[in-house]
Automatic annotation (TrEMBL), chain A:
One of its GO terms (molecular function) is 1-phosphatidylinositol 4-kinase activity. Its main location: mitochondrion. PANTHER family: PHOSPHATIDYLINOSITOL 4-KINASE BETA, PHOSPHATIDYLINOSITOL KINASE. Residues 139-354 form the PIK helical domain. This is Phosphatidylinositol 4-kinase beta. It is an enzyme of class 2 (transferase). It comes from Oryzias javanicus (Javanese ricefish). The lineage of its organism: Eukaryota, Metazoa, Chordata, Craniata, Vertebrata. Residues 360-370 have a biased composition (Pro residues). Residues 675-941 form the PI3K/PI4K catalytic domain. Residues 1-10 have a biased composition (Polar residues). Residues 86-133, 371-382 have a biased composition (Low complexity).
UniProtKB/TrEMBL annotation, chain B:
It comes from Oryzias javanicus. Residues 435-671 form the Armadillo-like helical domain. PANTHER family: ARMADILLO-LIKE HELICAL DOMAIN-CONTAINING PROTEIN 3. Keywords: Membrane, Transmembrane, Transmembrane helix. GO terms for cellular component: cytosol; membrane. It is found in: Membrane. This is Armadillo-like helical domain-containing protein. It comes from the Eukaryota. Its main location: membrane.
Amino acid sequence: MQSRVGGQNESNRKRLQKQSFHQDVCVKDGIRPERNTGVEERLVGSDGPGTKTGIFLRCRSVLNRIRGASVAGTLHPKWPTLSEHPSSPSASPRSSSPSGSIGSSGSLCSSSPSEGIGSSGVSSSGEPRGPSPQLDVISEDAMEMDLGGQQVIDPEVALKACQEVLLKVKLLDNRPGQDDQPPPAEAPERSSPQWLLNPDTSSIKEEDEDEEEGHRQAPAPPQDRLSLPQSASSSSSKQSWLLRLFESKLFDVSMAISYLYKSKEPGVQAYIGNRLFSFPDGEVDFYLPQLLNMYVHMDTEVGDSIRPYLIHRCRGSITFSLLSAWLLGAYSSDMHISTQRHSRGTKLRKLILSDDLKPPAHPSDPPRSVPPSVSDSPVSSPAHRRCHRRHNSNNVDAGPAPDGPDQGEVFASPSRRTHQRSKSEATLASGGPSASLRRTGSNPKVEAMHEEPERLRPQREFVKSLFCIGKRLATLPTKEQKTQRLISELSLLNHKLPARVWLPTAERQHHVCRLPPTQGVVLNSKDKAPYIIYIEVLECHSFETSPVPVRIPETRIHSSRSEESLDSGATANANSIITSEHRAGSFSTVPNYDNDDEAWATDDIGQLQVEMEGQTSSSDNISQFSVDSITSLESKEPVFIAAGDIRRRLSENLAHPPTSFKWDPEDPSAVALKEPWEEKVRRIREASPYGHLPNWKLQSVIVKCGDDLRQELLAYQVLKQLQSIWQQERVPLWIKPYKILVMSSDSGMIEPVLNAVSLHQVKKQSQLSLLDYFLQEHGSFTTEAFLTAQRNFVQSCAGYSLICYLLQVKDRHNGNILLDSEGHIIHIDFGFILSSSPKNLGFETSAFKLTSEFVDVMGGLDGDMFIYYKMLMLQGLIAARKHMEKVLQIVEIMQQGSHLPCFHGSSTIRGLKERFHMSLTEEQLQVLVEQLVDGSMRSITTKLYDSFQYVTNGIM
Amino acid sequence: MSQVEKKAGLLRRTSSSKKPLKEKVVLMYDEIFAKEDPAKNNPRFWDELFLMKVNLEYLESKLESIDGEDVQCIQDNINSLFHHCVQALGEEHQIKVVNALQTLCALFRGVHQKNKSASGFDIINMLMGFDKAEQRMKDLMESLDSLLCGDGSESLKSLCLKLLLCLVTVTDNISQNTILEYVMINSIFEAILQILSDSSSRGQHGYDAVVLLALLVNYRKYESVNPYIVKLSIVDDEPTLDGMGMVVHQALTEYNRQYKDKEEEHQGGFFSALTSMVGSMFIADADEKLSVQTNEAILLALYEAVHLNRNFITVLAQSHPEIDIVPAPPTPTPTTPTTPLGTTPPSLDVINNPELPLDPNLQTSNLLITFLKYASIVMQDTKDEHRLNSARLCLIILTCIAEDQYADAFLHDDNMNFRVTLHRMPMRHRKKAVGKNIPSRPLVCAVLDLMVEFVVTHMMKDFPFDLYLRCVQIIHKLLCYQKKCRIRLHYTWRELWSALINLLKFLMSNETSLLSKHNIFHLALLIVNLFNMFITYGDTFLPTSNSYDELYYEIVRMHQVFDNLYCMVLRVSTNAGQWKEAASKVTHALVNIRAIINHFNPKIESYAAVNHISQLSEEQVLEVVRSNYDTLTLKLQDGLDQFERYSEQPKEAAFFKELVRSISLNVRKNVSLNTLSQDVLLKEFSTIS
């Protein structure tokens, strides 16, 4: 497909070129015809005549117009070079740092003999672009926007600026390529901003009419062309080259962000601002912190160019709105309080939180700024919402409800609750003889008047309550009290669930339905109270539009359970052998209670129950007399068992190696984190009233209150970037970036690493050396399991060693290094990176933490695995070096306006850059790695720091 | 309590103001009790009547003084008074509503006091007239219902509840109160629930509502279909259930606090503490007695909720900070129309209030913990009849809890560890337990502790046999659950074993006196079977292999007790007599224990002989035990892990009847005090109007 399209393009162009070559006298290019004929020769045959005429005609008209507007002769000398750029191979975008690459690649181009290939390469990425219906739709939207959206000026200005530049650039481009493709050839189909380039669409004229600068008012294209030579003759070459780059398929978000940050050209900024629309949401989301930090801290032009995109995305998604609002708040907090209040970031945050960015509910409420891009996820329609609202209340309407206006107040209780109540009333009405008295006051008809909750509010409240819990916990003295309090707070919070709230760290769309209260655990921290909670969610198609799941009372699971009597359970027990890792409180002996029908039948047919109870006139359970043990014994052949067997079974049951940790009131999280995730999921699922639902999932999250997670977020981004670089370069380094949600400058959430406990906990609980622990957990040296775990350990060690070196991660005590069940180590807590270190005591001078215990696990200094470790590090460093810009860029942008300790001093970026050692050869790098490893291993300070931590904080 | 003072003040005032000059309202009452229709001459008579301040005493005494003959004559007028009272409830003017409510109160009470012996139908006839009774009561209940559910004055709601309490308790035996038949037909159950589900109204009326509900549930419980039972059993609305739990929790907490204060007061010396505590149980001042009795009502409510409503079990474990949840001030906070998550939690006041009192000494608590603490206090002394009843009820509630799978699940939940400070009776042979260092454990440990504590402390002449039976059954039920779910509880089982063995010892030494009253063989059988559980199924639930050795050690150590028991039951079962059957069961149950004793005793003796040790250390005995398991064969006994499920009827029916009667009396007494204090009410409404 790709190649065919490319071919069509090529032939298209070729024809156009031919035509224009004959027609346009002005353009006399000595080089191109030859080249083109070459192309032609290659592509003959793939030429289909059908669709091209339209395009051709369009181009013709453009050309005519251009010609009519008097072509300045001054341009002539430029043509050769200009035409060369677009057709030149787009210089390898990977190395495209905005600063240097243009010049260098420019020269490369001119000297390159392979223009033909280059041009075909470039053009092949696009499809022939006729006046597609999609474009029309979009432009309509844009018109609407222009008419209706007077309040918000910024996006329009941005748009206009953008169009201007694009037209400028385009025309420069087109000029030589009158014979060339119609403008947006390179862009992927879905990239919406491209419509702006189409000179035929009326919308552009409209926009132009609005333009403030007078001299640009006339129909744009010809005039623009006129104005160009003066204003941009020098930069034009650069720009056109840039445009080529921008439109190449290799132009990714990373580059966009980079140009946005570095380019001082408002036009480029505006273009990129628009271009953002064409990237997949997910890719842009990764750079959201950068975008927002630029928005907050950089000059207006940058802000204006991003703003439309931000607003648009906020409109489309609650998640995006909230994430942006949180980040904006966090990044604005470094400003002085007085400026902060009036800063752009704060204003945007207010706008987002004010919920004005709701997707339009009626046609009378036109979208204000930016047309929704085609590529965007479907915006929730009001119809959907209404549906949902009805859903909440539908069961309720049954009752006759001549209710007073007071209802709203009396029954502010939520829909589902009242709904339940009404249900039980309904059953009563039919079941009891005395239900003749109709309840008026409590007949829950409230829903009809119940306003739909604000869009962002539930989630914000949810998050707020989580942080309030954290704050309250912090005041309690002991871990035990904290944990108890946490449990009770969570069970209170449960009353509000399920609701339209979600966990931002999760991959899939869902609604939170329950927080199993007893699973909440306070983590180890001296004065703050971070805690981990497990969250039961129900996945759904779209969390914004799918109906919120109906609340199931806690007791539902109970009711299904208590149905089966004790002795039936006992017999089941006798038959089934229960494995020893069976934990307390689990119910695997209970037969099929997650079978839907059975579980629900009891309560849903409440009426039956009522009748039954009515008949017996007492709701006592029918008592089951157990056969007295003696009498039955007498009648039967006695069974004998050996006391020794009982004793042996008991010790066997207890003998299995302690895969689980013991409960320790000082470290309540150890047990919770050690429990294998699958087991935990199974256990919680069994105990949950929602567990039977197929879309039930368990998530977990660490809530941190009183900690600034912005640095963590930065570290996450860098880790993520390095991870993808290593993946791309196929270096088997293993790291585990865990997601961070910054919610303000002193609170946030962290995605917990599953199945992992800290080295400190491992040591304290097992009282073993790391190697012995590996042997205990995975088996002896030669087993497959051990070898796999060892390899995992080495790969992760290498990954994190590099990370620690590059980012200068400090505070590496064993409480901050996790070990997962597969043997990977995972570093957590990036509170001290780059330019900051704890208390600057001068500890931890080594490049990274490599203790002899680590080396032991790798099989000693001479082992193959240790050599593999060093090799991995070298490969990793080489790969990282290759993509240094991508990493640097993340850090650099975040430095803007930031007061984070990791940016302390002036040399942060420089230092980081130096650690990539761009100047060294690979051999030199290898030496460097050897040195680093050696130094770290020998480092006395590592040991010192560990013992310092042991003495001060009791971390082993 | 200030109520007493208030009452005194009130009484003085009314009595002083009454005599010299007849109030207008009194004159009007007189008119009613004349034979004429009072409205005949004065068409606005009824309107005016309800504008007058009610003179309850006069009205009641008037009703009381009517002779049988007169009743016929003035019945029309009384019917009419009742009718107009009901009508007045719908009035806009709240003074009228208040007066009507109080008049109704007086009517119900006066009529019943007079006609203690009269049948319920006569009373209904006298108040409302047979033909209209149904309609009148329907109107009355509907009015009360809408008053309770409306957003009117809180004191008005309170008065409505008082009226209902008054109505429910006019007879000693609630089941003889025929008027309640109409309350059954015209249910106010939903209104009660609504009060409980809303946090602010719960704070003010929760107690009355819960007591009322508990009483209504007990109306003709065993004879007919009581819709309140049916409805209560299927409530699944969490806020409501939580609300109910909260009310109970508060009442019990209050009691515990009072007890603790009292205890600390008397902390002077050990002896004085002992005497005064014992003393305070007997010569408790009115205040204390009052609180004990009202708590019976609350306890009954807790029982009914646990027993009838399986959903309520979750509420027991619903933990919340142990704070006196002050009734939320009627600020807009509790119920705002647009709630954050689209739902209103019952405890919005707790959760949404960031200014939650944060006393680090306050432990997180839940209803069950509070209940256990309460039970530990109540069980300390069972000589007082009220306390005995309370203790019995506590054990019944625990029985219900122990039978419930879900409750067992959270009792044994490793993630729910609590420190439960139980109150222990100071005794001669042991020091008062120095609490504070109780480890944080799953809740079931606290239950077991409580049981052990009870077993240890009540071996007395006036043997509470029934309570012991329940106690052992509760332990058995918990063990069954642990065995079934293979939960290895880290509990010091040894304490339980020695307590049970001591109990057996006590039973035997008091055989003659006990046997005259109780079937002690049944209790002995239960205890022996507990040991059999440990012996045959210990591998499924004992925490360590050592604990199994310790069990054998304990049995062998105390073999004398089992030997004596065996002798006794053998003796009884060979003689013909009423206990023959029961005793023979125990003989059979003892088979494994005897096997153990007979197996290990010689081994230990020979070990001692071989090693020339006169007194073996524990470790040495354990060593012998460990090395000789394999030659011991045990008999597998059936049905050890089965138990008779609790059922209220027929066994407990008499107890509950009696209990409800005493609660009724008590509530009636309190209500009569309260309804009189109407000053506040009148003040409130006079300013409004």
